[in-house]
Amino acid sequence: MNTTLRNILAVIAGIFVGSIVNMGIVNLSGALIPPPDGVDMSDMESMKASFHLFEPRHFILPFVAHALGTLVGAYVAGRIAFNHKMKFALSIGGFFLIGGLTMVLMLPSPIWFALLDLSCAYIPMAWLGGKLASGRITK
Length: 139
What we know:
The protein is an all-alpha fold. The chain has one domain (3-134). Helix content is 73%, strand content 0%. The chain has helices at 3-32, 44-50, 60-80, 85-106, 111-120, 123-134. The mean pLDDT is 93.
């Protein structure tokens, strides 16, 4: 396979698989940690109006979804990429970081969550995914 095509496929696959992991966890989160009464998690306006009712436990699974989605997506991209595996893994982290920043601007989440999410769930997880994909986790 052409190296350029393989590297493009790495990015597409990383974004696709990472998004599936992220959305899978987000979709399960309401069943595992129910939202406050009266909050419709599928309606952005309902969430905005009710964010004052959310407790710290309601932010655990969104953080896990962002971190694991990025980790898995970066790992997939790093495994598929022909060369520069870490660069491709980190590009997945950058992509998901932009998505996370967009959500922070759209939803009035607590500042502690925004800081934790943006600083720990994306680039560090992409770096770890890149390390795992390149087989250099101990080096």
